[in-house]
AMP-dependent synthetase and ligase
Amino acid sequence: MSPLPPWPVTVTPPALPAGSFDALLGRLATQRPTQPLLRWRDPAATSTDADWAVLDAAALRQRVEGVAQWLHRQGLRPGERVAWLGLNHPAQIVLLFALARLGALLVPLNHRLSPAEWASVLLDCTPTLLLHDDALAAAAQDLVRRAHPALALWPVHALEPSLPTGDAAPASDASPPPLTDDPLQRPLLLVYTSGTTGQPKGAVHTQGNLLANMAIAAQVQGLSERDVVATALPLFHVAGCASRPCRRCRWAHRCCCSRASMPAPC
């Protein structure tokens, strides 16, 4: 057996992949515009490869820009929160990068919690709006009606490029102004615990935290642009939302996003 190295072990941390989420995505879209970054399958489709959808780096950046503008037109401003209630969905990744551009925070709700626990989280983080997928549409509508009637509620389809005109689309087309603060210090992700020792507690993650996680994980795991990684972890968990999908974007390789399953009845 080899002798153990002297303690403490000194490790030089790797350099951050970029100075912000926006800079990271912009660089990938410029250097590798056709590199696939995100791949997912419609759960209602048949199991053929043609049913898989793909976003390359250029398309992802375009989608992020559109969502950021849409959120800004909804009145979202730096420091405000957007909550998500749903199963794993590619829109969560787009939403995370769009909120980084706006200086706002994503609050992914644990879909395994009870409605009372969701209400407690929303009361604590006071989001500007709540987005939901089709699977939890009824739960989201009931949550807002019972506990937060003033909260703006939107389906995930509002983030799609085919945003309808009329009442669903804001009148202003103004783009969000550039931010002047340090993006590495800017909070981006607010993840709540399951509340095993009381009420769920929120943990704030800055862009710097998440970018450092990408760099360290890529160094330890030896990831490259040739890798394809299946993400089955729930995106409401920090290991799912903050680690895996963002880590894949660090190296511009493909992330296969799997729809998390609902818990079985007890």
Notes: The beta strands are 36-41, 52-56, 81-85, 105-108, 129-132, 152-155, 187-192, 202-206, 228-231, 254-257. The CA atoms of residues 79 and 104 lie 5 Å apart. The chain has one domain: 21-34+54-157+183-257.
